[in-house]
Amino acid sequence: xxxxxxxxxxxxxxxxxxxxxxTAGIVLAxxxxxxxxxxxANITESFCEFSGTELFAINTYIEEYAFGNQFNHKARSERxxxxxxxxxxxxxxxxxxxxxxxxPLKLFTNEKGMAKLEIGxxxxxxxxxxxxxxxxxxxKRDLDRIKKSF
Length: 150
What we know:
Elements: E1 6-8, H1 10-15, E2 16-26, H2 30-37, E3 41-42, E4 47-51, E5 54-62, E6 76-82, H3 85-98, E7 101-109, E8 115-124, H4 127-149
């Protein structure tokens, strides 16, 4: 039985308005997938960028594997994302024309044990939108407390 790994980027949901989501594969080295399966990764500071027609996840932190020896990987490096050509073209057009951003939302392993990255086509929130979402979280938390007491 495989243990599924879910590493979320909570900061992205606060800073950006998510327009569309995609699931992409990642090109990884052997020790990188072992660290991800142990849950030792962080995607809060990462972003996605095009290099030609290929999409890369930049600044994604995957901790070095403890038993990797000389075959270990760099903790922060560019990692290629695997999407269909049609999806890549659509993302490239929307990033160039509309000024949208591509942000990693979730790093997870599927039922086969392969690492996948859920990316979102996002638009940055304004300060007042962030305040509004904080207000909604507070009211939801207060309502949950009231419901719990009854």
